[in-house]
Write a structure and sequence with these properties.
The chain is an all-alpha fold. Helix content is 70%, strand content 0%. The longest helix has 32 residues. 1% of the residues are buried.
Length: 90
């Protein structure tokens, strides 16, 4: 095979693979932009009101976090490592 034919073949392969990757990128970004997460703020405020401290209703203390984990999430706050992730995200 001549050098020119090899170059053309390489160019065709690279352009077809790059168009393949570009098309995937476009489809995934368009689908993710159409989905927007919704949050029920009233429900979130109710959950926070349930776990807030009696002394300071703007703070959720350790007792409130334990209540959230046990009653709402169904996890053991003393043994489950996911509690650390939850606290880190809060």
């Amino acid at each position: 095979m001549s050098t020119t034919k090899k170059r053309k073949l390489r160019h065709q392969e690279s352009s077809s693979s790059s168009s393949m990757w570009n098309s995937k990128k476009k489809s995934s970004s368009s689908s993710s932009s159409s989905r927007k997460p919704t949050i029920d703020e009233a429900a979130a405020e109710k959950i926070f009101a349930d776990i807030a401290d009696d002394d300071d209703p703007t703070v959720a203390g350790m007792e409130g976090i334990c209540t959230l984990c046990e009653e709402q999430l169904g996890i053991d706050p003393l043994e489950d490592i996911r509690v650390l992730v939850l606290l880190w995200k809060l």
